[in-house]
Amino acid sequence: GRVSPAKNVYLWNSIIRALSQNGLFPKALEFYGKLRESKVTPDKFTFPPVVKACAGLFDEKTGTFVYKQILELGFESDLYVANALVDMYSRMGLLDRARQVFDEMPVRDLVSWNSLISGYSSHGYYDEALELYHELRNSWIVPDSFTVSSVLPAFGNLLVVKEGQGLHGFALKSGVDSVVVVNNGLLAMYLKFSKPEDARRVFDEMVVRDSITYNTVICGYLNLEMFEESVRMFSENLDRFKPDILTLVSILRACGQLRDLRLA
Description:
Blueprint: H1 9-21, H2 25-37, H3 47-57, H4 60-73, H5 79-91, H6 95-104, H7 110-122, H8 126-137, H9 145-158, H10 161-174, H11 180-192, H12 196-205, H13 211-223, H14 227-236, H15 245-263
């Protein structure tokens, strides 16, 4: 007998994946519901896009329902399924659950670590983010620029100067230093630590700079009351970047301060 397309899980998976990849999350979940009704048994490839759709919609109820089905079918030990779950719970801020899925994974890759580190960091759990980052450094997996940019706010917010400088060394050694995201994070971190010389060194060594780079330095200088440097950075680079509203406000403030200083 011929295999009817409706009974073919591969076909369902392709549709669900296409919908989810294109951000049509409600449609993806609708099709997953139809798959369940059609008595087709999902396989492990069905779930990452379904979990991604739950994450995209911040739909905790459906997410938990799908997680139960994953457990029933025994797919929770699949790397890609587990990564999707860690990412979903991390985005939702349900970090205990994310951590639990992470801890139970038989195999982890960089994506697993990045999702959880970024989850901790973006929800303000800086200690946990740094702790996990240290665990990662002790494993055989090499962090990338996403890991570094995820962990930077944690370094910055905990004001761990020593750690922060260790990170710069790491960034140089692992070659992610050319990545503008990492450099912007390092700039922000040094300026926050009141280390403008270090920030300037990072800035001068950057091969690629974007608007965030200039905006970070201009606002950072202003916060350190380095008004002249702030205005100079602005006026010398106007053709190279788009100032954001924060920068324009900063520059007006810096000019005001300089005028007052000159008048005084």
